[in-house]
Design a protein that fits this description.
With 61 residues, this protein is mostly helical. The protein is built from 1 helix and no strands. Helix content is 64%, strand content 0%.
């Protein structure tokens, strides 16, 4: 009977550890995806005085 109790506790411990590690992996994957979406949604840098390198105001002459 002692062997079956030890085996049961080991099985429950391994399954619990697997669930915890899986949850941590999912949380890290979600956080990485969140950071990627945040970086994609970042606004472009502000335009100073309306001049950008592609604007006609920067042409000389």
């Amino acid at each position: 009977m002692a062997f079956s109790m030890v085996a049961t506790y080991m099985l429950v411990g391994v399954l619990g550890l697997w669930l915890i590690l899986r949850g941590l992996g999912n949380a890290l994957a979600w956080y990485a995806d969140f950071l990627d979406r945040l970086e994609d949604a970042r606004l472009p840098p502000p335009v100073i005085f309306g001049d950008t390198p592609r604007s006609p105001q920067n042409t000389w002459g």
